[in-house]
Amino acid sequence: MFGVVFPNRSFPIDISTFSQIDTFHWILDMNTFVGEAYDEIKEICIFLLNNFTLPPNKALAVYLQSPGSPFVFCGAITLARPSAVLSLTWPQPGCGQLQITSSESVPVSAKIGISVEDITTLPTLDVSAQKKIEHLALKVGENLFNFMQSFCGVDGNRLVVPMDILDRWFKKFQEKATRDPEYLKSFVL
User: Fold this and answer.
1) Mean pLDDT over residues 14-42, rounded?
2) Which end of the chain is more exposed for a tag (fewer CB within 10 A), N or C?
3) Which intervals hold domain Hikeshi-like C-terminal (predicted)?
4) Within this chain, do residues 141 and 102 fall inside the same structural domain, yes or no?
């Protein structure tokens, strides 16, 4: 059905390495590979195998669980997106947002859960990409604010900036990006 690879850490692992919970849920105990160093695993590549067809409205969702925390959604693959490299942002032990099953007791090891789910119920196919975009937007906004602040004046309880401040900032931003290709990369996680 599916396989996974931990880039630079493992050979391809097929579904037989996972414990099957029921027809639509599988769990991989990270103690099998790394013991307590689970948080050193930063990426997972998940892929559909050639002979498996996932229904068009379904996805294989990937969840992470640190010891003592519930499962947290990480990303998903679909028939239209049959493979993905997902960044693993492990939840803090004892913290979390979304559980894969409510019948599990507090885990003693980190786990990766795979679940067949409706695409429409998933927030996004790649949580880490969404977080990178949000981070980029915040960093660009912070850059603009800092630039504007250096030209601000105060009028009572209002900040006053020159009318052309956005044009000046954007021109400076573009010039830096053109001169230094690494400049924009500094805004990403």
Assistant:
1) 86
2) C
3) 133-185
4) no
Going across the sheet that includes 83-87, the strands are 13-14, 2-5, 43-48, 83-87
Contact status, residue 27 vs residue 111, Cβ threshold 8 Å: yes
What pLDDT sits at residue 22?
92
pLDDT at 127: 62
- According to DSSP, the residues that pair with 46 across neighbouring strands are 4, 84
- The total number of structural domains that make up the chain: 2
Task: For residues 101 and 103, give the distance between their C-alpha atoms in angstroms, rounded to a whole number.
Answer: 6
Same domain, 77 and 115: yes
- Pick from 99, 124, 149: which residue ends a domain? 124
Residues 116 and 37 reside in one and the same domain: yes
**CA-to-CA distance for 111 and 63, rounded, in angstroms?**
8
Which DSSP helix (H) or strand (E) runs through 10? none
Are 137 and 184 in contact by the 8 Å Cβ rule? The answer is no
Based on the number of CB atoms within 10 Å of its own CB, is 186 exposed (0-12), middle (13-18) or buried (19 or more)?
Answer: exposed
Could you report the per-residue pLDDT of 135-188, keeping only the tens digit for each? 777 888 888 888 888 888 878 888 788 888 888 888 888 888 888 877 777 776
| Tokens linked to 42 | 């930063």
Q: Is this structure's pTM higher than 0.70?
A: no
The pLDDT tens digits of the residues spanning 3-21 come to 999 888 788 888 888 999 9
**Is the same domain home to 117 and 140?**
no
- For residue 1, which of 127, 28, 18 has the smallest C-alpha distance? 18
